[in-house]
Design goal:
236 residues; 2 domains; alpha/beta; Arc Repressor Mutant, subunit A; 11 strands; four-stranded antiparallel sheet; Rossmann fold; 8 helices; globular
Length: 236
Amino acid sequence: MQNTYSLQVPQAKSRILVVEDEEGILSLLEQTLRIAGFEPITASTGAQALTLIRKEEIDLVLLDINLPLLDGFQVLSKIRQTHPSMPVIMLTARQDKRDVIEGFNLGADDYVVKPFSVEEVIVRINALLRRSAPMDDEKVLTLGPISLSQKTHEVKFHDESVALSRTEFNLLQLLMENPRRVLSKESILKQVWGYDFLAATNVVDTYISYLRKKLHRDGYEGIRTVRGVGFQMRES
């Protein structure tokens, strides 16, 4: 099937870290990102990538799984320890859905399976950067003990700050914008991830579980499962 994706030049030049040990793919992605208006930074090992993340301002990471010594899963785990909200797209030649699920369990925001079209990669990058961009307004959502600032991307449980990844934040925002409304998994996939290519996986369940672990406390259990339908968020 022929791809219908098109390259979209971003409004501002974002810095994209490409972590890939195959020289040909690394060069292709670097050239493609530069043509699309991004500023690519490259690394061929996990250790190099982690050093660059510590020293440079990075807007998004394209991270291959099959890296030497320190694989992509290990790198992602370390990124999430220091940069919980940094957007990360995993690259892999593996077809096993268990690898996709493991990546999301570790906090990946998206996944691209090789062989891929460069147009698809650019579309995924643009979609994730749009979802990750801070809001210009001061709107604060409040539901029960939880408040969420769209401008600062800060979430609080009562007065205590709660650290969320970009995807966790986007999912929570969607739930809080629709209080008491039951949202289907398909609807959540399209609105949070931007498409439904993972409809056969449990990525939504995984991220709901993440939110519950961080927000269900002190008697609050407001993120509900409506069996056979989807999820809703309530005041208590």
